[in-house]
Amino acid sequence: MPESLNTVIDALPYMLSGALITIAVVAGAMLFGLVAGVPLAVGQVYGRRLPQRLIGIYIWFFRGIPLLVLLFLFYFGFCTLVGLNLSAFTVAIIVLGLISSAYQSQIFRGAIGSLPAGQFKAARALGMSDTQTIIFVILPQALRLSIPGWSNEYSIVLKDSAVTFALGVAEIMARTHFVATRTYQHMPLYIAAGIIYLVLTYLGIKALRILENKVRIHGYIR
Amino acid sequence: MILWAENIRKTYGDREILKGVSLSISKGELKVLIGPSGAGKSTLLQCLNFLVMPDAGDVWLEGHKIDRAKKSELYAIRQQVGMIFQDFNLFDHLTALENIKIGLIRVKGMDKKAATDRADAELERVGLKEHAKHYPAQLSGGQKQRVSIARALAMDPKVMLLDEPTSALDPELIGEVHAVIRDLVANGMTMIMATHQIGFSRAMANEIIFMENGLIVEQGEPRKIFSNAECERTREFCSKVTDLYGEV
Lengths: 222, 248
Hints:
The complex is a heterodimer of chains A (222) and B (248).
Chain A: H1 2-46, H2 49-64, H3 67-81, H4 88-114, H5 117-125, H6 130-160, H7 172-183, H8 186-214
Helix pairs in contact in A: 1-2, 1-4, 1-6, 1-7, 1-8, 2-4, 3-4, 4-6, 5-6, 6-8, 7-8
Chain B: E1 3-12, E2 15-25, E3 30-34, H1 41-48, E4 56-61, E5 64-65, H2 71-80, E6 81-84, H3 96-106, H4 112-125, H5 141-154, E7 159-163, H6 171-186, E8 191-194, H7 198-204, E9 207-212, E10 215-220, H8 222-228, H9 232-245
Parallel strand pairs in B: 3-8, 3-9, 6-7, 7-8
Antiparallel strand pairs in B: 1-2, 1-4, 4-5, 9-10
């Protein structure tokens, strides 16, 4: 027992610096997903038939293929094919981001759909253009309503990021695996890795909860 | 005439909501639309500023025929025609003051300072200056409707369309909204209002328009429509609403 504990303690700084990489991958992917997911949702709700179709295909594609397949497809297939020399870290962010954008778009779409139709009508009645209405009236409300769904998505992307270890991204899982194969202390090391993930999940969800309360509309109960 | 519409038609699915309605209004007039639910009052009002796109018919504002194929013309007419909704439709994420400022800044292109001053003045006009920082969810129904009137007024509309402005309000709160509308009439605002408030309409309106099944059945001075309507159906409707909504 002391020996295994010592192994964990010795490996902890190494694993925690992996946590920083995990955090960077997750933050990058969530941001990518946000920036791409909002226009996808808007296009799906307010767009014409053709963009709606294309967005539908995009979402179907990225929600329908396993993460590992997409990672390999992109890293070993696509990047080699077009001669792109991207690091595993960058590919991890892009692929996780693409997938997350598909899921996030549905969170935003749901939030937009839950707003009363009168909000759009009232903005139009003032002479605002559709684009202005979406930017200044619809999205500020829809994004607020999206935070609970977004915190769910965060916890999923966080755990999905462990799969990027297959590309050799030096995140928590890769580093734990590296130490475990050398020390044979699998049990305590993977328990430690699990705890790190649990803590990261807790912190992220807590932070989003604080954000949710901070931007809550006063007197608004819904 | 400041606004007129000719032969407005609208069909939803296989239901014909408006079967060719024409109407006009001169500066400073208040015309009141009455009629049972489903008569097409609300759709007609929303066709006048193209919130609902009519299938046929044309709208003129100050002699200019609106070209509905041009988005810029639609944005322009909506800016000049204020609209008040039954359920207020204040922007829930903005305070009372911000609700008024957003149109001034985004549509009229005013700077923030000027917009704040104007919004303050409009809130004061509807007696809600002290509620400037309150969010819609913190206001009563009557207060919300007054903010929405202030929001529309701030845009300097040439005509106001009011779609049952008091129908969602407790009886006690109707009076405060009526007071604001009465004020507007006194100041010469041109308005078309759908309502079931017969007493108020009789006292304030220049003309009553009775609609049913997507058509105007009869129109005329309040006295005539309420006491001496030519059409049997008009008389029947008026006596029913009078029973419900108080003495004429």
